[in-house]
Design goal:
The protein is of the alpha+beta class and 276 residues long. The protein has helices at residues 3-33, 143-170, 180-191, 198-215, 223-232, 234-247, 256-265, and strands spanning 43-50, 55-56, 65-75, 78-87, 91-94, 99-100, 114-117. It contains seven helices and seven strands. The strands form three sheets. Strands 1-4-3 form a three-stranded antiparallel β-sheet, with no helix packed on it. Strands 2-6 form a two-stranded antiparallel ribbon. A two-stranded antiparallel ribbon has the order 5-7.
């Protein structure tokens, strides 16, 4: 097969598909736009009636037709009515028999207003229900039994989850915050082998003052007063002076010898170990 024939077949495909689509749209439009009214479907008819305004007869059980007036527009010499109707049986009906004048009497002198309603089933269909033979496929289901078993299984799955959650909660241990001596010792051990940041230098100076103030049980006064009291103590004053010279010198970040001296000279086991 030549390339020309292949290209021709490929170009015909979209045209055929478009033609079929248009055909289906046309059939659907014809079906839905037709005036075919069946039982249970509301129909519509617009009529002009001269004279005073008329009303529709209320529907009562057993009537073949239910009629209502959806709208009434005044025109010269009368009204234009938008009549809506619904039939409960097939056949030909006359809408004028369902209208009343202002005296609630049947309107006289009106031309015929015929409407035709078709049945839902074909004429050859009697509507009789026939018994069908049993099918070899068992369509019965055990829905209630299956749902009950699923609910029980779902409830059993909650049991291990409940105990698992309790075990995890029981394992949570709240550790106490480190004390002032523990924090000071940790920073001095770090300074003995590594350089300190500016923040760590400030923490060492503050923690040393708090360490000795706690050991000497100094009252909680202003910092300048606490510092004066510490300078008067022989051991605390020597430590405070040594740290000030260290931290305010040029080699404060990398001087680990001072940190090792403080670790060796400070008495970590005696005195009070208060918490911040």
């Amino acid at each position: 097969m030549t390339n020309h024939n292949l290209n021709r077949r490929h170009s015909m495909g979209p045209l055929i598909a478009a033609g079929l689509a248009l055909l289906l749209i046309g059939i659907s439009f014809w079906f839905w736009s037709s005036d075919r009214i069946t039982i249970g479907v509301e129909g519509r008819q617009v009529v002009k009636i001269p004279g005073p305004r008329v009303s529709a007869i209320p529907y009562t059980h057993g009537d073949a037709l239910a009629v209502r007036i959806a709208d009434a527009v005044p025109i010269k010499g009368g009204f234009q009515y938008d009549l809506r109707y619904m039939a409960y049986g097939p056949g030909r009906h006359d809408l004028r028999g369902y209208l009343l004048d202002e005296r609630q009497q049947p309107v006289s002198g009106l031309p015929e207003m015929p409407v035709t309603v078709t049945a839902l089933l074909p004429k050859e269909e009697s509507g009789k229900l026939l018994e069908t033979p049993p099918t070899p496929i068992d369509l019965r289901t055990n829905y209630r039994l299956g749902m009950g078993l699923l609910w029980c299984l779902w409830g059993l799955l909650l049991v291990p989850l409940f105990f698992y959650g309790r075990q995890r909660r029981s394992r949570v241990v709240v550790l106490p915050s480190p004390s002032i001596p523990e924090r000071l010792r940790s920073l001095l051990e770090h300074a003995a082998h590594s350089e300190l940041t500016v923040e760590q230098q400030t923490d060492i100076e503050k923690l040393l003052l708090a360490f000795w103030a706690e050991r000497l049980q100094l009252p909680n006064e202003r910092l300048i007063e606490t510092l004066d009291e510490l300078r008067k103590h022989p051991t605390a004053g020597a430590h405070v002076s040594r740290v000030e010279k260290w931290l305010h010198s040029r080699d404060a970040r990398g001087n680990g010898s001072v940190a090792r001296e403080l670790l060796a000279s400070l008495d970590w086991n005696s005195g009070r170990t208060g918490r911040r």
